[in-house]
Write a structure and sequence with these properties.
- With 435 residues, the protein is of the alpha/beta class.
- It has two domains: 9-215 and 348-432, Aminopeptidase, CATH 3.40.630.10; 218-340, Alpha-Beta Plaits (2-Layer Sandwich).
- Helix content is 35%, strand content 18%.
- It contains twelve helices and 16 strands.
- The strands form four sheets. A six-stranded mixed beta sheet has the order 1-2-6-3-7-15, with helices on both faces. Strands 10-11-9-12 form a four-stranded antiparallel beta sheet, with helices on one face. Strands 4-5-16 form a three-stranded antiparallel beta sheet.
- Helix 2 runs antiparallel to helix 5, helix 7 packs across helix 8 (310-325) and helix 10 (355-368) packs across helix 12 (414-432).
């Protein structure tokens, strides 16, 4: 392999091939231990808001591996100026855990981030493998958080361990982060940035199926309040159903989504059919089955792509709702109202041909012999906090299929786990430099 475009000359010297082989062998030697650690993490439930127990396990592991370990609960007062971007709640008993390996000097620093919280497991009856059993079958590890993204945290920890076990000491500082509250806005990652954790680059092991992801979408959470006019069901025509008025508004939002998709020219989003989904996930209406519903609340998520500003999109979204309401005689006189709530995910990106992207392309190729795809994703992630607020280039690369995250029978392919761990390990050595 020739001189990398994104790495300093010393890191691509003839000795790199031997270094890669030694690091890969060190990962292979720890395969069983790596899988067992992911199982240990999955067996401790850590739904957003309940991360304390698993973080105690993580902190103990960090300390046992010799990392300088920082454990703290995010301070709402420090996060308050950024309240629009995260969900402000009680962080008591929900610490972040950060482990740091100081470099020997002269290298670039690197943050390796993964969130530890998960969504609810849902109905256990829908799982063929219990959500917290962490069963391994046919080369797959099942469980809530196996894909999203406890595997990602284990990847980071064992990648760094493999570099050290192969006999190398990173010249730049390496920081491994286990952060809370990503699923509802990323207060944990933002708290780490505001605590001073910044570096020359950051990698997040979200489940990308080993694609290099330099662009993440954004999203806004909205609550649409739709009015109606109550009447007894036996004379429902004398009332105005908020449900029926919502149907009109919902059709307008879907048409807005279609127009937005046709307008977007971002090259990394070209292969994605629905680049900016607008989804209504919760609908509440009325108070009595035999009454015409005089109110409706619909909660949803609207997507953005890099280059779009949150305020400008809010204005456009409101204009679409107002235009749709203007077509209806009742809604013209009783306009619907839009409320924004929860953490707002700004889109973010780094150059697809920049040093960090090339680093992972080179590392993946050294491990597999092939070139990974470079893709964008439509979901929001903690990547944005590092890019927007931390002045730290950040991208995503990891094992697992995001389409399985949040689903029953969530799982990760163990071969992908091993490949991602080897790739991250080689990336640590290449980026930070090693003695």
């Amino acid at each position: 392999m020739g001189q990398s475009r994104g790495l300093p000359p010393g890191d691509m010297a003839p000795g790199r091939s031997e270094r890669v082989q030694r690091i890969m062998a060190a990962v292979d030697e720890r395969r069983d231990e790596l899988v067992a650690f992911v199982q240990e993490l999955v067996r401790v439930p850590s739904v957003t808001g309940q991360e304390g127990e698993v973080q105690a396990l993580v902190a103990a592991r960090f300390r046992a591996t010799g990392l300088e370990t920082d454990v703290w609960e995010p301070d709402p007062a420090i996060l308050a100026p950024y309240a629009e971007h995260v969900t402000m709640t009680d962080f008591a008993g929900r610490p972040n855990v950060v482990g740091r390996l100081p470099g020997t000097g002269g290298g670039r620093s690197l943050i390796l981030n993964a969130h530890i919280d998960t969504v609810e497991p849902g109905d256990p009856a829908r799982w063929t493998h219990p959500p917290f059993a962490a069963e391994v079958t046919d080369g797959r590890l099942y469980g809530r958080g196996a894909c999203d993204m406890k595997t990602g945290l284990a990847t980071h920890l064992f990648a760094l361990a493999a570099v050290r076990a192969a006999g190398y000491a990173p010249r730049g500082d390496v920081t491994v982060q286990s952060t809370i509250s990503e699923e509802d806005g990323g207060a944990g990652a933002l708290a780490a940035v505001l605590r001073g954790y910044r570096a020359d680059a950051a990698i997040i092991t979200e489940p990308t199926q080993l694609a290099v992801v330099p662009a993440q979408g954004g999203s806004l959470m909205f609550r649409l309040h739709v009015p109606g006019w109550s009447a007894h069901a036996c004379v429902r025509d004398e009332g105005v159903s908020a449900v029926e008025k919502f149907a009109l508004l919902h059709r307008a939002l879907l048409a807005f989504e279609t127009r937005r998709n046709a307008e977007i020219a971002h090259p990394l989003y070209a292969p994605i059919a629905n680049k900016v989904p607008i989804n209504v996930g919760v609908v509440r209406a009325g108070s009595w089955p035999s009454s015409v519903p005089e109110w409706l609340e619909a909660e949803g998520r609207a997507g953005l792509v890099p280059g779009e500003e949150l305020d400008a999109f809010r204005d456009r979204f409101l204009a679409e709702v107002e235009a749709a309401a203007a077509t209806d005689p009742f809604l013209r006189d009783h306009p619907p109202r839009v409320e924004w709530f929860s953490g707002q995910f700004a889109p973010a990106e780094v150059p697809a041909d920049g040093p960090l992207a090339r680093l992972l392309l080179d590392a993946h190729q050294a491990v597999t012999g092939g070139t990974p795809p470079v893709e964008a994703v439509t979901y929001g992630a903690d990547m944005r906090h590092f890019v927007v607020f931390g002045d730290t280039p950040c991208l995503m690369y990891g094992a697992g299929d995001v389409r399985l995250a949040h689903h029953a029978d969530e799982h990760v392919e163990l071969d992908e786990l091993i490949t991602s761990t080897k790739t991250i390990a080689v990336a640590i050595a290449d980026w930070c430099g090693v003695d």
